[in-house]
Input
Amino acid sequence: MKPPCLTNWAVAVGKLLGVVTFLITMVAPLLIFEAIALSGSNPPMSPAIPLLGHFGLILLAAAILSLGMFISSLTDSTILSAVLTFGLVLLLLFVDLIAKSIGGPVGEALGHLSLLKHYNTFIQGIFDTSAIILFASYIFLGIFLTAQSIDALRFQRQ
Output
């Protein structure tokens, strides 16, 4: 009996879910410590702000990890994929600075791609759906490109 084949999408989504689950287990204890610290704060602070900040952190990390997963699928070298992912993350985090120096409609369009700008809205306690859409787009793009890269690799081996 032949075992069922996993699709490329299942491999990519499973890998991302595994890494994001690991990240959430590392961030979860921070919520407990923050709840203890905020319970004694004067004036009292709404718990929505730290929760939104952690939600934004998880979305930011998932977007970066999905793009890093794609770059990792392109090469066999771990060091090369780490360096390329680091370069891409720096570019996406600071594309807002590049956009401000360019100016005009092109700079404004580039400014909307900034991960840091959209993450800052969550840190400030603002629930912004455009930030969620941006992070979801990066996550989907990373998963899609990873699945296509796996497919191309399987095609080359046949």
The chain is about 80% helix and 0% strand.
